[in-house]
Structures are given as C-alpha cells and as structure tokens.
Design a protein that fits this description.
Chain A has six helices and 37 strands. Chain A is of the alpha/beta class. Chain A folds into three domains: 93 residues, 3-Layer(aba) Sandwich (Udp-n-acetylmuramoylalanyl-d-glutamate--2,6- Diaminopimelate Ligase, Chain: A, domain 1), CATH 3.40.1390.10; 185 residues, Hexapeptide repeat proteins (UDP N-Acetylglucosamine Acyltransferase, domain 1, 3 Solenoid), CATH 2.160.10.10; 32 residues. Chains in contact: A-B, A-C, B-C. Chains A and B meet through strand 19, strand 20, strand 35, strand 36 and helix 5 of A and strand 4, helix 4, strand 37, helix 5 and helix 6 of B. Chains A, B, C: Catalyzes the N-acylation of UDP-3-O-acylglucosamine using 3-hydroxyacyl-ACP as the acyl donor. Is involved in the biosynthesis of lipid A, a phosphorylated glycolipid that anchors the lipopolysaccharide to the outer membrane of the cell.
C-alpha cells in the first residue's frame, strides 16, 4: 500500500514542493506520522504540530507554504482538508479490494424489487417488494429496505440500517391503542449516506423524504413523514419525531432531539444534545444543554433551579421595594 | 387500489352524506388531498383546511357535519381519528399482498422453539431454544428472540429488534467486572408492537415483563427486570434502566430516560427528552428539558446557571438586608 | 436445574452454615425467594428483607452471620454480591446447553478472516476480510465485524452489534459533503462485552480502541478514533463522539453524551443523561441534568431560565444600590 507524491499530485492536483518520487505508505495525523506517512494541516492553529511532525510530506494551504517547505516536502493546495478527503478516496480506490456489484447470495431480495445492476446488496440484507435501489448504491451487510421504498444513486447504507419500518401511528381508543397502518413509504435521494443501525420510518399517508446529499450517522431515528433537506448532516443518536420538516444545509449535533411537526429552515445548526421544542425560522446556531459540573455543585444548582421562578418573584419584590425606598 | 365510499361505510360504519358509488384511490391529509382522495378532520382547529380541501370525501365529527356537507361528500363519525385508523387498516387489508404465515426459509429457528402456526417469522430472524411466539404474531426481518423468551399473540416486531440479550449486570472486583449471568427471560404480552432496532434485555433472576397492548417505537432500550404496564406507549430513543417499574397507560416521549429501580404509577406522561431521576407516584405530565436558545443566549444563561445557588444566597442576603433596613 | 448448598460451597468457597445436602432449584431476590431458592444480601440496608425472606439459604457478609444463621441456612462470604455473580456463572455453566464453538452455517465469514477455533460465530453474523476473532470469543446472532477489525479473547458481542462501520467523516465543499474514507479499523481487547445493537466505528486514519475489560450496554454509539480505557463501563444509549479519549475505570451512565476530542482521565464517573462538553481532568462524579418537575412548574422555571443572565444583572444592580445606600 503505497503512493508516490508525484502520483498523488497527478491524481488530485496541488503544487508539489519536494521529490515526486518519494513514496508514502500511509496517511497519518501530524503528531503520529513517521517518515513513511503523508499528513495534512487543516488549520493554522496546528502549526506547532507542523514544525514537529516527522511526516514525509504535509498538505498545506498557500499561507503555510514557506513554513512547510522549510521543513520538508509539501503539497500546497487551496483547501487541505478537502484535499485530504480526496486523498483518502484515492487511497481506498487504489488499495481496497474492489467489491463487484450485485446481490450477495445470502441477501433476500423480493422478485418485485428493482435493483440497479451497478448497485451492491451485501450479505444478509432484505429488500422488500417494490423497493428501488439506484445506480452505484451500496447496502453493506444486514440492511433492510421495506416495501416500496426508493433509494437513489451512489448511496451508502451501513450495517443494521432499517428503511421503511412502520411509523409510530396510534389512535387512542378506550384506554388502548388502535394501529394506524403506515401507507406511505420512504424516498431517499442521491449521494445519501446512512450510518449503522439508523432507522427511517415510512410515512403514514405520504412519504418520508431524505433529499440528495444528506449524511446521517449511526443510531439515528427519523420518524414518519419527516423531510430532511439537501446536504443536511446529523451526528449519531439524533432523534427526529414525526412530520418534522428540516431544511437544507443544516447540521444536527449528536444526541439532539427534534420534536414532531416543527419546521427548521435552511442553515440551522443545532448543537449536540439540544432538544428542539419549537420551530426555528432563522438560520444560526442553537443550543440547550444543562452545563455539567461536579456532582455536588450540580445538586445545589439543580435544587435551586426548581425554585427559579420564585427567585425571580423575590427579586421583583426587592426591586419594587428598592424603587419605592428611593422615592421619598 | 380503490374503495367506494359505500364500501367504506359498510365496513366501518358512520353516516355517509354523498354518493356511495364515489370511488377514492388513496387516503391523504386535507392539504394535499385531491379529488381522488378521502381525508379526515381530527380537530376543529383544522377547519380552515376543511374548507379548502379538494378531497372527494372528508371524515368528520358530528359537530362539523354541516360545514363538511356544504363542501361535498362526508362521513360523519363519533371519532374521526379512530375511524381514520380503522380505514388505514381496511385499506391495507384490501390492498397489501397477504403474507402467508410461517417461517421464512432463511430464518434460524431452534427446534425447541414453539412457533404458533399462524405466526410469521420473517427473513433472517433468529429464534432461540425455548422461545415461544404466539398466534398471529409477526416478526419482520432480522429480529432476534433469545432463549426462553415468550411473545404473546398479535404482536408485531419490526426489523432489527433484539429480545432477550443479556441485561447489563456486573459485580466490581479488584478494578475489573465480574459478569452476572442473566438467568431470567423476557415475557411480552398480546398486541404489543416493537419498533425497529429496539432492545429488551432478559432479566437477571426473574423476567423482564412487557404487558398487553404496549407500543414501543424504534431504538428504545429496556433494561433487565423492567416492567412496562398495559397499554403504555413510548416514542423513539427512550432508555429505561434496569428494574424500573412503569405503570399502565403511561406515555413516554422520545429520547426520555427513566433511571433504574424507579416506580412510575399508572397514567404518568413523561415529556420528550426528560430524565426521570426519582419515582413518580402521581399521574400527570412531567417535564425536564433545558429550553434551547440561540447559542449566544444559551451560553450566557448556562454560565449563570453554574452559579445559581450562589445567586440565591446573594438574593437572601439582600432580602435580609432589606428587612433589617425596614426595621428601624 | 438444581444444586445442593454443599456443591455451591465446594465450587465457590464460603462458610456454609446449614445442611449441605439441602437442594435449591433457583436463584431469587430476597423478596420473591421461596424455600426452593437461594438468595443474597448485598447491603445491610436490606436486612429487613433478610428477616422476612423464605429463601432456603442466604448469602451474607460476615457482619450479618448471626442474623442470617438465626433465620436458617446461610453462606458467609467476604463479598456477597461478587459471590452471587459467580453463582450465576456456576448456575449457567451447569444448566445451560453448551454451545459448541465454531461458525454457524448461516454466518458469512470471509475466507481471509481469522477466527480462533475456540470462538463462536453465531447465526447470520458477518465477519469481513482481515477481521480477527480471538479465543473463546462469542458473537451471538446478527453481529457484523468489518474489514480488518480485531476482537480479543473471551469477548461477548450481543445481537445486532456493528463493529467497524465507517466513522462519520466529511469535508464541506461548495455546500455539499465530500466523504473522508475511513482507513483505520477497530481494535477491541480481551474480556470485552458489547450490548445489542451497539455500534463502534472504524477510525479515520488510525484505529478506534476499546481496551481490555470494557463493558458496553445496548444501543451505544462509539465514534471513530475514540479510545475507551481498561475496565470502563457504559450503560445503554450512551453516545461518544469522535476522538474522545476516555480513561480506565470510568463509568458512563445511560444516555450520557461525550463530545468529540475531549479527554476524560481514569476514574471519572458521568451520571446518566449528562452531556460532557469539556475535558474532565480530575476523577470524580459529574452531572448535568435538568431536574424534572410537573409540567406546569417546569414551564415556569424554564421560561425564567431563558432570562437567567438578566436576573443576575438585576441582582447585581440591587446589590450595588444596597451597597451605595449603606454608604451614606
């Protein structure tokens, strides 16, 4: 597993300062890279690590050219992090065993499912009747795609993903629950990645929709009739309740919860573990997390928090008192 | 896929105002229904949508009869939402391909498991020794039911469900952990629905118990020796720690956490993302969520929160001061 | 399924007071044990239950010897909870059907994976190329172990576990995301237990590392390049974001979230549902949970919380005012 610096520059561009014949065996972070590795500097704040690294070559932005060149070989590129991403792809393409497309013999694919011939259905997957899997899409192992759900092109679904289980629809009746059959499906666009054991429920009447370019991490729950807009990314363990409408280019931090029937416009960024309880109609960063503390401090503050409203009333009383005291 | 209004009324009751021969092709929300669709009005607050809808027929409560009839065909019923639920069931029964009961050839079912002949064990499920699957119960694909666990009648388990993995039982010993083998099982009643990738652990000594009519959404964790009472419903991503005893007719919102060994009486409603840290002995709605805000506002408030107890002390001092000032 | 008290004492030690020939059929908690059961008293605070239990024999600490002996047979041991854990193991070893090691015929194991002959690969598991499974390790059903991931000896992976899915690595580019291929793997030590549907992602460049003796409950998400130190235990639904470095002997409560790139030293204990937003460099117990309350009380307090910073400013103003008032 190796590439020369010349091969890298030829494939991905960038200005190479140094020996094009120099060969690297792996990609590594600056701090652990040895003379066999290529590394990258994504932010100037890591420049100290640049000076100290033993990497054979470092990918840097134009502003760091002189500093990097003084140290050894470097690749000067507009966006080192993006370049690094492309280099990981090049690396994988060159070194990973190619998995030929097709349906693994242990997968259970309904005769009425439509699988593009360039798609890959991995071991022990289940694709139900009427499901559609687009060109170049890969279902790793143990993925379920339910009836009539459609997955676009170039998607990647990791093990354990469940697309198209029933949404959670129940009508109360005499203390028990009557099931609302979920007659919609799930429609997933192109270039979507879905992490391990993530679930996207089918819609009640209409479809749950995941637009092009959406990236979902592991163990995420997407309820029925949710829309997730183009290029939105969600970190692990997020829960999105039914009929939430999330815009494009949003990011949702790990463990966050978005309640049902809310609207988040494009460009909303929700911090990890935040609970979104009302619609957000203005782009920006939103947060709601209890600041953690050592347990004793937390206990004192949490106990007081349960009387916060009273505290405000007492403060008001003092203010009135002070105001009247000042008016002789 | 179509039904006439007359067929619907004949099957489910209700008073039909309009042409019994009129045929609908789908169920749809009021706002997106066209003349090919039947819709429903669940709350008077959506009456504006009633006026505007293009639906062929609307299911309404008696109070809305005149308004609905003025617009076109309608079905007048006591509880439109319940009627809608039953209509989805009718729809599915008429239009979905019937899955014959039985064990899919790719399922791995122990010879000593007892599967009712009317049950359905889907593709790639695992049913271990001594497990019991009741009449009419359906395990969709990729469900595991562990040794000696019992599932009642008419249950529905979605893909990826794990029933009867070991509870998390550990005894500390010299800095390491000694496993407590989990000798109990899981007992699930009738008419229980369990969402995709949800896990219910087996008990340590006695059984984990899920009573009749319980509805669990996706990605829920139920620890060992928990009891979930009759007809309780939990939304996605809930975590219930070991030995919690949750009553009947409760609802637990998405992402909520119930700590171990707590008791929740019947009729407790826990809001989404709330952490239940002590027993709840009175029915009602309970909440504990940090209100989210734009990030800057949150930062200010969260920083202050870490000094809340001190604020109270300062307020007390001022009050004392004021009181003594007033006593000349 | 039965053991005599003599057999138990011979296998596990302890001082038996009572009839060694007495046979017990099951292990049970003090409160539900009948004369066919053996039970244990883990804490003196349950001594009332000791007096009332109908158990044939109770495992107790030396301090409880007289109280226990007065009641009936007992086993006096240094650490009753540890002894109980070992008794569950003895019970299981004696009574459970031995599962012979080997690869279940429905498992999909790559020819280039290395499976120790004493390991057990259960039904419908997937083990990819280059993966290594150590001696005595058990993969229950439906576990995926990805390419090049290594699992040590005596590990137990519950159904639905996913080891080595891609970490969530993305570089932003013109409003879309470019995938960072995840070139690292997952390295898991010896004696690790991993709960149902838990996911551990492969590293971006280097490996995600789970050290010896770690115990993970169900539905946990471990991001790429995380390190979890020796003997650390995490309860269900925890999320650990990428590159977090968690020390040894830590405990992380259920539903807690640890953000990325943070360091937790050895011996840190995080309470359930706490969000760790900065590194913790001192051992101890840490908590950050919004105290729940009845909904109306919560609403009042939460509304006030959104103005907490202002409250502090108002308090300051009053304090100044009071101070200047006192200085004539």
């Amino acid at each position: 597993m190796s590439l020369s610096l010349g091969e890298i520059a030829a494939a991905l561009g960038g200005e190479l300062l140094g020996d094009a014949a120099l060969v690297v065996d792996r990609l590594a972070p600056l701090t652990s890279a040895g003379p066999e590795a290529i590394s990258f500097l994504s932010h100037a704040r890591y420049r100290k690590e640049l000076a100290a690294t033993r990497a054979a070559c470092v990918i840097v932005a134009p502003a760091m050219r002189d500093e990097a060149a003084a140290r050894g070989a470097c690749l000067v590129v507009d966006d080192p992090y993006l370049y690094f991403a492309r280099l990981t792809q090049l690396w994988k393409a060159r070194h990973a065993r190619a998995v030929p497309p097709g349906i693994h013999p242990t997968a259970v694919v309904d005769a009425e499912a439509r699988i593009d011939p360039t798609a890959t259905i991995g071991p022990l997957c289940v694709v139900e009747r009427g499901a559609v899997i687009g060109a170049g899409t890969v279902l790793k192992s143990r993925v379920t795609v339910g009836e009539d759900c459609t997955i676009g092109a170039r998607c990647l679904l990791h093990p354990g993903v469940v697309i198209g289980a029933d949404g959670f629809g129940l009508a109360p009746h005499q203390g028990a629950w009557v099931k609302i059959e979920q007659l919609g499906a799930v429609r997933i666009g192109d270039d979507v990645e879905i992490g391990a054991n993530t679930c996207i429920d089918r819609g009640a009447l209409e479809d749950t929709v995941i637009e092009d370019g959406v990236k979902l991490d592991n163990l995420i729950q997407i309820g029925h009739n949710v829309r997730v807009g183009r290029n939105t990314a969600m970190a692990g363990c997020v829960g999105v309740a039914g009929s939430a409408d999330i815009g494009a280019q949003c990011t949702i931090g790990g463990g966050a919860v978005v309640l049902g029937h809310l609207k988040l416009v494009d460009g909303v960024h929700v911090s990890a573990a935040t609970v979104v309880t009302r619609s957000i109609l203005k782009p920006g960063q939103y947060t709601g997390v209890f600041p953690f503390d050592d347990n004793a401090a937390w206990e004192r503050n949490a106990a007081t928090l349960r009387h916060l409203h009273q505290l405000r009333e007492r403060l008001r009383a003092l203010e009135k008192n002070a105001a009247s005291g000042q008016t002789p």
